[in-house]
Amino acid sequence: MNVFSQFLNQISATSLPVIDAVISLDSYIPIDISKSNSIALDFNVADSGAWEKYINLYLSEQNNQVAYGGYLEKRNLYDRSTYFKNVTAHNKRNIHLGIDFWCAAGTKVLAVLAGEVHSYKNNKNHGDYGPTIILKHTIREETFFSLYGHLSEASIATIKIGDLFTQGSTLGYLGKATVNGDYAPHLHFQLIRDLAENFGDYPGVSAACDFEFYKQNCPDPNLLLKIR
After folding, report:
1. Which of 39, 86, 84 is nearest to 183 (CA)?
2. I need a surface site. Which of 7, 21, 122, 192 has the fewest CB within 10 A?
3. CATH: 3.30.40.10, 2.70.70.10, 2.60.40.4070, 1.10.599.10. Which one for 3-12+24-225?
4. DSSP letter, residue 39
5. Are the CB atoms for 188 and 150 separated by under 8 Å?
6. Confidence of residue 90 (pLDDT cuts 50, 70, 90)
7. Which stretch of DSSP H or E encloses residue 186?
């Protein structure tokens, strides 16, 4: 574990919620949607309705409310969108850089740490984030960012740059497929050390050729969340 990852891990000894804290961690279950899970993903991944049906059935069968996972997971899901496709396999963006939380549209999204709104944007490309908020955090002279993607349009309707959120306060709500980039409802949560010149957006999926950079710049969110 590098120095910055150690710093993140030491911010809290207990789990920090990023979705409605009323939902107990006992109601979370891991899910694998990597390219290696072709048997489980035996449906049309280009169809957001089929995705939602699959997620709901998975949660129902396991008697849980939230399916989570995906950090550094290599996925075929993005092949459905021209926004992610590239000419060669080496340049194809398919390595996921955050953790996804698959649950019902309208679920509360919480600020995982106290911070201020750096930027927000409705990223409307097919397969993109949809409504997105980025918070800026400064702790013990370290500055870094957290990104919350696939929100509802109402989540960014009245927000302003510089707005302050306390840890655990409601930042927004999960959007439906019609506004969230055409996915089953879920939160994409990502940590970013250096946001560079990005505004309301940051790559959430890496190509193999850029993997080492993004792995360092986007550390594991579970260092804060401590789900398991």
Report:
1. 84
2. 21
3. 2.70.70.10
4. T
5. yes
6. low
7. strand 186-192
